[in-house]
Design a protein that fits this description.
The protein is built from 5 helices and 16 strands. By secondary structure, the protein is an alpha/beta fold. The protein has one domain: 4-Layer Sandwich (Nitrilase/N-carbamoyl-D-aminoacid amidohydrolase), CATH 3.60.110.10. The strands form 4 sheets. Strands 1, 2, 3, 4, 5, 6 and 16 form a 7-stranded mixed β-sheet that branches. A 4-stranded mixed β-sheet has the order 7-8-9-11, with helices on one face. A hairpin with a 5-residue loop joins β5 and β6. The longest helix is centred in the first third of the chain and has 17 residues, at about 20-35. The mean pLDDT is about 95.
Length: about 290
């Protein structure tokens, strides 16, 4: 069934942060302004947008990288969101009142209202991605953000590999899933299993298809230590087709207009959601001993 168009314009900001946090924030503000000039309504930043990717080391002092909500990011972006009437998604290292540390995303609506954060649920622990040494697993579930321009979810980096997370987001009513990430190749290393970047893109495009939903993954650029980040932030439509892709090496504000009415059109045709059989899926909720 054809419906009227419902357009939302997405902005994805990819940068190469250095060690100077105020400078990183200033550069990000400049890129947000660029996205606004291009017509962006919902602007998402990369994972840990204002700090270096310190978890590639097993033990790094990181207190200076943490912040509260409200804190330095909301102080910077609330006025910007209100001024331009845009939604801003800022992935941060959140320190709660109880002292717990989460890899989080704070969402500021177009009126400047700060929404409760999403806290990354799936935490990796691999060579050069030692996040379990630093972060708690998220404790507030997979959140739906109902904003002025669209309803969306935010899933952070390692969350991207888990189809359960994207399906829950879609069932909750998300029209877009933003995937802010910090991922890349290890310098002078060829993975025996194949191209990591290809897998990163393929899994997220598959979430778009399986849920008939828009996905907007984004990534930082440049080399930090042994990691060479891919950049190549992109937006895929509800059948997994890439609508636009950012540079592999350059800082950029990628802006893409999407027609959210396409979601229902595809669901009416493919009926993936309608034909689900939840009573057969109990095994998914059981703890597996497989590594």
């Amino acid at each position: 069934m054809k419906t009227g168009k419902k357009i939302a314009t997405i902005g994805l900001v990819q940068t190469h942060p250095g060690k100077d946090i105020p400078q990183n924030i200033a550069k990000t503000i400049q890129k947000i302004e660029e996205a606004v000039e291009k017509g962006a309504q919902i602007i998402c930043l990369q994972e840990m947008y204002d700090v270096i990717y310190f978890p590639q080391n097993e033990h790094t002092p990181f207190e200076e990288y943490t912040e509260t909500i409200p804190g330095r990011s909301t102080d910077a972006f609330v006025p910007l969101a209100k001024k331009h009437e845009v939604v801003i998604v800022a992935p941060i290292i959140e320190k709660t009142k109880s002292g717990k540390i989460y890899n989080s995303a704070v969402v500021i609506d177009a009126d400047g209202n700060i929404l409760d954060p999403y806290r990354k649920v799936h935490i990796p622990h691999d060579p050069l991605f030692y996040e379990q040494n630093y972060f708690e697993s998220g404790n507030n579930g997979f959140r739906l953000f109902k904003t002025r321009y669209a309803n969306f979810a935010v899933l952070i980096c390692y969350d991207q590999w888990f189809p359960e997370a994207s399906r829950i987001a879609a069932l909750e009513g998300a029209e877009i899933i933003f995937y802010p990430t910090a991922i890349g190749n290890i310098a002078n290393y060829t993975p025996p299993e194949g191209d990591w970047h290809e897998a990163w893109e393929l899994i997220q495009r598959s979430h778009a298809i399986a849920n008939n939903i828009f996905v907007a993954p984004l990534n930082r650029v440049g080399q930090e230590g042994e990691l060479i980040f891919w950049g190549q932030s992109f937006v895929a439509d509800p059948f997994g087709q890439v609508l636009a892709r950012a540079s592999a090496t350059e800082e950029e504000a990628l802006v893409v207009a999407v027609d959210l009415s396409k979601i229902q059109e595809l669901r009416d045709g493919w009926r993936f959601m309608y034909n689900r059989k939840p009573h057969t899926y109990g095994k998914i909720t059981e703890r597996s001993e497989q590594k």
